[in-house]
Structure to design on (50 residues):
């Protein structure tokens, strides 16, 4: 975990944003099948605010 923290700290802003987007998409692929369409829409709205 320490290595991951160092790598993330050394990323610039655009690299951190890209990494965050990739992890977000990966997480959504895992949980989306368990959510209703309404729950997915609510989650997308909340993510758009961030």
């Amino acid at each position: 975990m320490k290595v991951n923290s160092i790598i993330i700290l050394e990323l610039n802003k655009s690299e951190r944003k890209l990494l965050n987007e990739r992890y977000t998409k990966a997480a959504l692929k895992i949980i989306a099948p368990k959510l209703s369409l309404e729950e997915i829409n609510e989650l997308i709205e909340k993510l758009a605010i961030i």
The mean pLDDT is 80. The helical segments are 2-10, 13-31, 37-49. The longest helix spans residues 13-31. The radius of gyration is 14 Å.
